[in-house]
Amino acid sequence: MVFELCALNFVLCDLYLKRRHHTNTGLKHKTQSTKFKDQNTKIKPPRTNFKIMEYHRHLDDELDSLRDRVLLLGGEAETALERAMKALTERDSELARKVLDQDDKIDQLEVEVDRQCIDIIALRQPAARDLRFVISVAKMAPVLERIADHAANIARVAIDLNNEPELKSIVDLSRMSDHALRMLRAALDAFTSGDAATAREVILSDAEINELYNHVFHQLIEMMVTEPSTATRDARLLFVAKHLERIGDYVTDICELTVYMAEAAFIKHFK
Amino acid sequence: MSTTAPTITTRVKVPERDPGTDSARSGAPAKIAVHDLDFYYGKTQALHGVSLQIPERIVMAFIGPSGCGKSTFLRTLNRMNDVIAGTRVSGQVLMDGVDVYQPGTDVVELRRKVGMVFQKSNPFPKSIFDNVAYGLRINRLTANKSELEERVEQALKDAALWNEVKDRLKTSALSLSGGQQQRLCIARALAIRPEVVLMDEPASALDPVATHKIEELIVELKKQYTIVIVTHNMQQAARVSDTTAFFLLGKLIEVNSTEKMFTNPNEKLTEDYITGRFG
To answer: Please, which pLDDT band fits residue A26 given cuts at 50, 70 and 90?
Structure first.
């Protein structure tokens, strides 16, 4: 039985080696192909001393293009927020209308980023950090679009309020918008450079916006009580404050995605 | 902003990956344990101090550029390199705790326990039935004809080929398609009931449909066998394997759960290879 098992093994190995000899004509095996004729002849080893070749990847071009596009979307959202708040504080309805006009462009950009992400996943099958980047961008695009939507809503409030008598200025509302803008810029910078540490700091700084929101909330309620004739306008400002507070949350989402992209760590739903 | 990373505690728990599929973390005893393995073709060293554990009943994939030593390493597991003159090996390959390179090892028995499937299907110019029955017959592993038929049927079923060939078992194996021939070779390897099946690029010569069938089969086979597969196709490694090992220039660079390997490998070299930055 042992002899027969040996025979089977020999037949299988022999067949395998002969097939290798007959079928491998590619570069990889070229040097050893003729050596398999005689098993007693020493063969050359497989190629092991090759150089690692680094080369340009078309995927890099596509990822760069995707990065550019999502940053463009981020820039548009940032501009929309800046203009909407300026339209509100400087009573500039023309500027507010520009924000609304730009909203379609932002929606369009979001769809383009979406499609680009899907194409890259389907056609390039990215892995590791490339995969994390594409997934992060795919999840970030709708978040940026939502930020722009909130900016558009602030612009609508600005148009409404600009048609009515001016309210006394609320300092904390301006502070909120300044802080939200700073957070958004820092978040986009952190994403661009893959800086998870900065992203984490931005996440923690969202607490400041929440605190300012509480101040603004109480301030506006007090104004409604003391001067009921302005209650409708105060309520509109309350919505603005809520939009800014939500923008802070969305910026936090962007930072969580940056941390995932950089470190493959999930830090969603933090305490 | 400063670059010191603040700590952020989350309310939710990120689900851990199944530790059973992660050889690096799994406490399961290894079916194959390799310690500090060096391998030489003459004076050329092809493997440098490879140490690796392969747990039972998983699919482990070896990936790496051409010439990195993954196929050489695969063939050291059942001493297939012994048939090449001028080769030399040092270190240990333990199969169920027994060194397969220790003097007196029954190499034939080793290869019965550790079956192999090659890149190109190599059916014998015999009928489908006779191909699968070959090993059983010459080793007299069955007592009678009905047991032989039973074992052949089971092997063909295990190789997901039975339904396609049950009505033409007496026709030549060479009449089968490339994908069917490869599954026939797998059936032939399974017929003698190995414990480990080594596969050296088993689907590289097949079309996508045949490849898909082989991949489905591999996932199915791990319920009964330990599978080690060498593949150039990284997506294939991602699809079928539980654990992936990356080789480069004869060295084992990283072994990790396949999910980790393809989303966040530990080593930069692994990441650069997986993302196609070099080859």
So the answer is: very low
In sequence order, what E strands does chain B have? Answer: 30-41, 44-55, 59-63, 87-95, 98-99, 114-117, 196-200, 226-230, 243-248, 251-257
Helices and strands, number each (H, E), in chain A: 8, 0
The radius of gyration of chain A's CA atoms, rounded to the nearest angstrom, is: 31
On the question of pLDDT at B258 being above 60, the answer is yes
Q: A44–B138: do the CB atoms touch at under 8 Å?
A: no
Which residues of A are less than 8 Å from B238 in CB distance? 127
Q: What angle do CA A58, A142, A187 make, to 5 degrees?
A: 80
User: Which pTM was predicted?
Assistant: 0.80
Find the closest chain B residue to A182 by CA distance: B1
Task: Say if the Cβ atoms of A128 and B271 lie within 8 Å.
Answer: yes
> Is A47 in Cβ contact with B5 (below 8 Å)?
no
Residue B109 to residue A60: CA distance in whole angstroms: 50
Contact B11 A269 (CB under 8 A): yes
Instruction: Enumerate the β-bridge partners of residue B196.
Output: B114, B226
Model confidence pLDDT, tens digit, residues B179-197: 999 999 999 999 999 999 9
Query: What pLDDT was estimated at residue A168?
Result: 79
Contact with chain A for residue B143, Cβ under 8 A: no
**What pLDDT score does A51 carry?**
58
Instruction: Calculate how close chain A gets to B54, using CA atoms only, in Å.
Output: 24
DSSP strand pairing (B243-248 vs B251-257): antiparallel
Task: Assess contact for A95 and A87: CB atoms under 8 A.
Answer: yes
